[in-house]
Amino acid sequence: MSAVENINKENPTCGCDPYLLSLIEPQTSSVEKKSGKFTGLLIASITGGAALGLTALCYPFVAPALRRVVLPYVPASTAQVDNVIKALSLVKPNGRLIDLGSGDGRIVFAAAKLGYPSHGVELNSVLVFYSKFQAWKHKIQTATFSRQDLFKVDYSKFRAVVIFGVDQMMPELEALFEKSLSPSSHIVACRFPLPNWKPLLTIGEGIDTVWVYEVKKT
Ligand SMILES: C[S@@+](CC[C@H](N)C(=O)[O-])C[C@H]1O[C@@H](n2cnc3c(N)ncnc32)[C@H](O)[C@@H]1O
């Protein structure tokens, strides 16, 4: 074997002795190593914190969707709110109104404006906070809100119910209303009708339709 071949065997790239090479190659100092570790930790903490914050922020919007029947936040259109107001003006419920899943409170505020003391129950705590803040800001004492599951409401306190739900939950709600509402109370169902009850009135059309029902006297 020639001398050149022998040298290249030790370090095929430059032909240098690896030990001698290691003496002249720049080494990472312990200070640099520590600062690199710190930067890594900082980035991990920032991204981890941001992910946690985002999860906490989104949770109230996602939580209702984790339930058996998904009832997402879809605000009522202006036409839909107008139809609810038309319905209330026609049937004139004689007592407090409750909006089930009150969202940003738009139906509760419209009904309160019409003269009906109204309450909104809503699972999303951000929306409940927002609605309460709006009621406080505009000094509307007849519009109140609570963070509550609509399936755990004491319905005996109310004479009118507004619901903008989803199709799949209407049979369960129908049974709940039958059991919990006092006779001659009114129900205004938005977009999805109750499956078996005969409506007193149907107002509007398409996705803005509302159906009005009266709980039968027993
Ligand atoms: C279709 S949106 C209607 C919002 C509002 N009523 C409107 O018309 O603008 C349904 C609302 O119900 C809420 N929700 C879902 N499940 C609920 C439950 N079990 N109890 C109370 N609110 C619920 C959702 O967070 C959402 O804001």
UniProtKB/TrEMBL annotation:
UniProt cross-references to PANTHER family, sorted A to Z: FI06469P, METHYLTRANSFERASE DOMAIN-CONTAINING PROTEIN
Example of a GO biological process term: methylation
Domain Methyltransferase: 93-179
UniProt keyword Cell inner membrane present: no
Keywords, alphabetical: Membrane, Methyltransferase, S-adenosyl-L-methionine, Transferase, Transmembrane, Transmembrane helix
InterPro entries documented for this protein: FAM173A/B (IPR026170), Methyltranfer_dom (IPR025714), SAM-dependent_MTases_sf (IPR029063)
GO MF annotation terms: protein-lysine N-methyltransferase activity
Transmembrane segments: 38-62
Family, per entry: Belongs to the ANT/ATPSC lysine N-methyltransferase family.
Annotated protein name in UniProt: EOG090X0HEX
One Pfam entry name: Methyltransf_31
GO cellular component: mitochondrion
